[in-house]
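Retro notes (design track)

What went well: tokenization of the new backbones is finally stable.
What didn't: we kept losing track of which sequence belonged to which structure.
Fix going forward: every design gets posted as structure first, then sequence, in one message. First example under the new rule, 227 residues:
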């Protein structure tokens, strides 16, 4: 599974069960997560933790979510997704007027929350989506660099695109023709055996002498197996 690293999320809700559920789910997706059960703690923690995203419940004792939103937007560069148990237009308008970036009603699906988080990141922190960690691979698409076991690989442009394509599709059998289409382009008119040449070069650079990382499946193609 693709994991997103380096994105911090602050969860603010006075219901411990919701906090625990969301914290476990978001951590499993690769996010760095901290939690707060009241507004004042959230404001204090935000100054220390510096989250990119705040998932903020409206109805909390003491300082409510509206006030937390107002205070955070004055001082922090943060995207705020507000949660409410009430389907009231006035609440949504008030939150958005105070600077909230999105609004969700309880109950909601975790998949929908993930999609909204991704949308906020794309819009407000697009530079954070350039890095993907899969197994021992770290792919930084901003720098066009791939590290394996914390070692930066020296790759040509084509080697980079080929290895990125194979790692992101790890576990799938990739035929030579599919690799050519995706890496070299549909209008490539050369010999498909060029794939073998590049695979051999990648294996050398990965020290994959026994072909355990990039496997050859006779008559079918190649498959990357992450361990």
């Amino acid at each position: 599974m693709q994991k997103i690293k380096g994105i911090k999320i602050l969860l603010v809700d006075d219901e411990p069960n919701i906090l625990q559920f969301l914290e476990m789910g978001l951590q499993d997706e690769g996010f760095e997560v901290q939690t707060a059960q009241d507004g004042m703690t959230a404001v204090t923690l935000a100054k220390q933790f510096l989250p990119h995203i705040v998932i903020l419940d409206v109805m909390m004792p003491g300082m409510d979510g509206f006030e937390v939103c107002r205070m955070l937007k004055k001082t922090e560069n943060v995207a705020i997704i507000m949660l409410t148990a009430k389907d009231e237009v006035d609440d949504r308008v008030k939150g958005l007027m105070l600077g909230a970036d999105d609004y969700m009603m309880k109950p909601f699906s975790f998949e929908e929350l993930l999609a909204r988080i991704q949308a906020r990141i794309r819009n407000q922190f697009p530079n954070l989506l350039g890095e993907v960690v899969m197994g021992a691979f770290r792919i930084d698409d901003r720098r066009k660099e791939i590290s394996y076991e914390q070692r930066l690989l020296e790759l040509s442009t084509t080697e980079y695109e080929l290895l990125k394509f194979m790692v992101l599709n790890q576990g799938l059998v990739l035929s030579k023709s599919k690799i050519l289409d995706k890496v070299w382009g549909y209008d490539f008119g050369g010999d498909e055996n060029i794939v073998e040449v590049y695979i051999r070069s990648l294996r050398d650079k990965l020290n994959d002498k026994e072909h355990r990382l990039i496997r050859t499946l006779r008559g079918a193609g190649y498959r990357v197996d992450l361990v």
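Added context from the reviewer: DSSP finds eight helices and twelve strands in the chain.
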